[in-house]
UniProtKB/TrEMBL annotation:
Keywords: Cell membrane, Membrane, Transmembrane, Transmembrane helix. It comes from the Bacteria. It is found in: Cell membrane. This is Membrane protein involved in the export of O-antigen and teichoic acid. It is a multi-pass membrane protein. PANTHER family: O-ANTIGEN TRANSPORTER-RELATED, PST FAMILY PREDICTED COLANIC ACID TRANSPORTER. The chain crosses the membrane at residues 12-34, 40-58, 79-99, 105-127, 139-158, 164-184, 205-229, 249-266, 286-303, 315-340, 347-366, 372-398. Its main location: membrane.
Length: 410
């Protein structure tokens, strides 16, 4: 069993690593080919999509792996339909209307956001479905192809039509192709187990909690877009994306591995979840420390040589946000388990507290100093400290699951 888990982990990390390296490698081409304002619109649209995605999918991507096969299939269909509806409303109705009647920049941002929303939701839902079926090699191939296709198509789009909408469309086309090439084909079989602690779904708490979590991490990008304009949002967005690259490189794969390893324990109410979480946290903590140090030392020096003239601020901002974004390597796989463990309400309270703290830091820094760097430093420190209660809650939930499982076996 241990060998099988190691093999799965290696395959998923390799697929995610190659795919995300391709996306990161595309950034210098995009920063040179696209005007900063268009890059800012794209970054803002991406941030908005990440915030809305939990509502568009109703967090079904976290229920599918622990549900019975029949319920998992239903969750998948409903989430895909709902996310498509959200994308159409934002990208084809509201966005064009605002563009024509009120504001072109806001309209373009909503159109790009709608397109990105469906691309993000599609991959989240379909990946969860592969986890449910245990098709980890297919999932690894999808992670790889989605990243490589997106990087290539986005650079081509930026060369031909250097706009946020064109680059967002390239992302969606790439993910549709990757999903089609790796679609799940295994026939579903009915199973005895399904649901674990999630016998009754409290979807409202899970959705709001995830939206608040996304808002916490995207607040600086969205806030700068509205207050300072698209160019400032581009600097901050690119800086955060570079600082968050290590999490993107392997963080999603680690979350998939964690959810895949934990799902049988949750479904079948077996012990061992806390030990799994401890081992995972030690490994991800070491990786986060090395990553943050490297980003702090190298990003300010290498920003303009890599991204091009005019992108020095992005390098400084990368260093500023290196610690909280590297900590996502630790927090993301751990806190992902709180929803299938039935802890949505507790997670919601913790996420609201975190968002409030970050918002206070943002507003205080802006009002007291008026300096972008000082404001971002204050926000970064607050953001980092806010992970502690979330990690503590994950360990408490895992421990209680194990205690309950042992009690049931007795």
């Amino acid at each position: 069993m241990g060998t099988d888990v190691k093999r799965r982990t290696s395959e998923l990390i390799l697929g995610q690593l190659v795919g995300q390296i391709a996306l990161v490698a595309a950034i210098p081409f995009l920063t040179r080919l696209m005007p900063q304002a268009e890059m800012g619109i794209y970054q803002a649209g991406f941030s908005i999509a990440l915030i809305v995605q939990p509502l568009a999918t109703l967090r079904k991507e976290l229920l599918i792996p622990v549900a019975s096969t029949t319920d998992g299939s239903q969750h998948r269909r409903r989430a895909l339909l709902l996310s498509a509806l959200f994308a159409v409303v934002a990208g084809a109705l509201i966005g064009p209307g605002i563009w024509v009647v009120f504001d072109g920049i806001v309209g373009q941002t909503l159109i790009a956001g709608g397109i990105i929303l469906f691309s993000v939701a599609l991959l989240a839902i379909e990946n969860a479905y592969l986890i449910r079926l245990g098709q980890y090699r297919r999932l690894a191939i999808r992670n790889l192809t989605a990243g490589v296709f997106a990087a290539a198509l986005q650079v081509i789009a930026a060369q031909l039509i250097p706009t946020a909408i064109a680059v967002a469309t390239a992302l969606l086309v790439a993910r549709l192709c990757a999903t089609a090439l790796t679609i799940a084909r295994k026939p579903l079989l009915s199973e005895k187990y399904g649901g674990g602690e999630r016998a009754s779904q409290r979807s409202a708490s899970a959705v709001v909690s995830a939206m608040v979590a996304a808002a916490s991490s995207q607040a600086v990008v969205v806030g700068s877009f509205w207050t300072l304009g698209p160019a400032a949002a581009a600097q901050i967005g690119v800086g955060q994306r570079i600082a968050g690259a290590p999490t993107s490189l392997i963080g999603q794969a680690l979350s998939q591995v964690a959810l895949g390893a934990a799902s049988p324990l949750i479904r079948e109410r077996r012990a061992g979840l806390r030990a799994l979480l401890v081992a995972q946290t030690i490994k991800t903590g070491a990786a986060a420390s090395v990553t943050a140090l490297a980003l702090i030392l190298l990003a300010p020096i290498l920003a303009e040589p890599i991204l091009g003239p005019g992108w020095h601020e992005a390098g400084v901002l990368t260093a500023i946000f290196a610690v909280p974004l590297s900590l996502q390597l630790v927090a993301l796989p751990s806190t992902t388990l709180l929803v299938p463990l039935g802890r949505e309400r507790q997670l919601l309270v913790l996420q609201i507290t975190r968002l409030t703290a970050i918002a206070i830091a943002l507003v205080s820094g802006s009002l007291l100093s008026g300096d972008l760097y000082l404001t971002c430093i204050l926000t970064s420190v607050t953001w980092s400290l806010a992970y502690a209660p979330l990690l503590a809650a994950s360990f408490v939930a895992a421990t209680r699951h194990d205690q309950s499982a042992i009690g049931n076996n007795d």
